[in-house]
Specification:
5-stranded mixed β-sheet, 12 helices, Cystine-knot_cytokine, Cystine Knot Cytokines, subunit B, 35% helix, 5-stranded antiparallel β-sheet, alpha+beta, differentiation, 19 strands, 498 residues
Length: 498
């Protein structure tokens, strides 16, 4: 019975004579499985929460207009919830994201609409805890108003309004003695009649095989000023992922699906203290698009920063290129092509990498600066291509579009669980007319064109095809170290008629 999976669980429910007898057991197993997986596969879970709380208020300490919906706060009249969110956010800002303590409640048991959490012994429980319920996926079926009731909450009854913009729900708990195990029983009710099924969908998923939507975490704001979060290197990687999410150009067309492991690759090259200067210089100066893959990356995997040993000359070149790409990125923000929040995350990345400080040779500093450079190069390249494509579409043409580069976006599906970003990339494609006169055409294509124009329909005409390619570079971090894998001839960069 311990090996029952989600599908088997629902099969048992279907076949047994007394489904209510097994409902609690099946949902219990279902909930344990999903909650454990959520933490195991989401190493940025806590870091993302801290970042969201940090960004909930502006520099003036006031809640942003979008923050209440993100945290399930119902209205202006819900002053207590707004105050809790504001105090958490201001405290995190004041302590530069330090002084945040967390506890993992044991997996919750869902029985009818009662949720039970088992809390471990901890002195943190003497502080005022905040129970955070994090959504794995947003609500897609309208809005849902919920009431939470429990003697473990303070106040005993609290409400939340869930919409498609809601990422978290905050419930304030009572402080208590931390030397005993506790069990929180929380009654959950929908305010409107007829929405009971929607409430179950939010808590446990409404269909066979669906994921539990909520993952619990106990949050404590400890005014200690110490950083008890995950390591600084993990914070850098999580911030890098958020920076890419905020900065990448928006895709308007449905991308093609591509399995990364189906592509040919050159042998992986180790990135570390023994990596040759020639290779590092080549990578730093490469314009090839880069994606970041952390294939063994999880909250149980202790992420260690990679280490590089750059010569003073190459270190100076890295710094110059980093500064140049940062200027380009800030210009994109100034032009409105990239959201303002990307500039704030870029500043945070500079602080975490510590590259601009006096000791740029500290452990992991050069490696973090290297990752940031490759991310910025990838972004500035993406926006440069976007500009060229827009200019080509807007240019005058009397014979229709001539042969040139076009966009071909693919979604990388093979490493989604370990992919830091981006999860989609533009590989370009060549399309357009090959009628004479043309640029970038060779003598054979000219002869083919004249041959076709004389009525020989049995020969093919010149085709618009790629003439040159860039590789797709994948930077991999796993429990064996850091590596660069190159997938050659992936990105079309020049077109012609052949």
């Amino acid at each position: 019975y311990l090996s029952v999976n989600k599908t088997h669980c629902f099969s048992i429910l279907f076949c047994c004579k007394s489904p209510s007898k097994f409902y609690k057991v099946c949902i219990y197993l279902h909930y344990i499985y999903i909650t454990s997986a959520a933490h195991r596969d989401a190493p940025c879970f806590v870091d993302d929460l801290v970042a969201a709380l940090h960004d909930a208020t502006g520099k003036d300490g006031e809640l942003l207009a979008s923050s209440p919906a993100s945290f399930g706060i119902c209205s202006e009249s819900d002053s207590s919830s707004r105050l809790v969110l504001s105090e958490l956010s201001v405290g995190i800002r004041r302590n530069d994201r330090r002084g945040v303590e967390v506890l993992d409640p044991a997996a919750g048991i869902v029985e009818s609409i009662m949720v039970t959490f088992d809390l471990p012994q901890s002195q943190l429980l003497k502080l005022k805890p905040v129970l955070v319920l994090a959504f794995k996926s947003p609500l897609t079926d309208g809005e849902l108003d919920i009431i939470f009731s429990s003697q473990s909450l303070q106040p005993n009854t609290q409400s939340a309004c869930i919409s498609g913009r809601t990422l978290y729900i905050l419930l304030t708990g009572k402080s208590s003695e931390g030397n005993v195990e506790q069990k929180w029983n929380i009654s959950v009710q929908a305010k409107s009649p007829g929405t009971r099924q929607s409430l179950k969908d939010v808590l446990i998923g409404g269909k066979s095989g669906s994921d539990v939507r909520l993952t619990p975490l106990l949050l404590f704001s400890a005014e200690t000023g110490t950083d008890t979060r995950q390591t600084a290197s993990l914070s850098f990687l999580c911030e890098l992922r958020r920076f890419l999410d905020a900065s990448l150009p928006q895709q308007h067309a449905e991308p093609l699906l591509l399995r990364l492991d189906s592509l040919q690759s050159l042998p992986p090259l180790a990135l570390g203290l023994s990596t040759s200067e020639t290779l590092l210089a080549e990578i730093i100066n490469s314009s090839a698009p880069t994606i970041f893959s952390f294939s063994s990356w999880s909250s149980s995997f202790p992420v260690r920063p990679g280490q590089l040993a750059l010569s003073p000359a190459l270190l100076g070149e890295l710094g110059q290129r980093l500064e140049m790409n940062e200027r380009q990125m800030r210009e994109l923000v100034r032009q409105g092509m990239v959201p303002q929040r990307a500039s704030e995350k870029l500043e945070r990345l500079r602080q975490l990498s510590a590259f601009q400080k006096q000791d740029s040779s500290a452990e992991g500093t050069q490696y973090c600066a290297f990752l940031l450079l490759k991310a910025l190069q990838m972004l500035t390249r993406a926006y440069s291509i976007q500009r060229k494509l827009r200019a080509a579409r807007a240019g005058p043409s009397t014979r229709g579009p001539t042969c040139g580069l076009g966009s071909l976006t693919v979604f990388l599906t093979d490493l989604v669980s370990g992919l830091l970003g981006p999860q989609s990339t533009d590989l370009n494609n060549c399309r357009g007319s090959c009628a004479i006169p043309l640029n970038n055409i060779n003598n054979h294509a000219v002869l083919l064109t004249y041959h076709i124009e004389r009525g020989n329909v049995n020969e093919r005409g010149p085709c618009c095809v790629p003439l040159a390619y860039d590789p797709l570079e994948v930077i991999v971090l796993n429990d064996e170290g850091s590596f660069l894998t190159s997938k050659p001839d992936m990105v079309a960069k020049e077109c012609g008629c052949r």
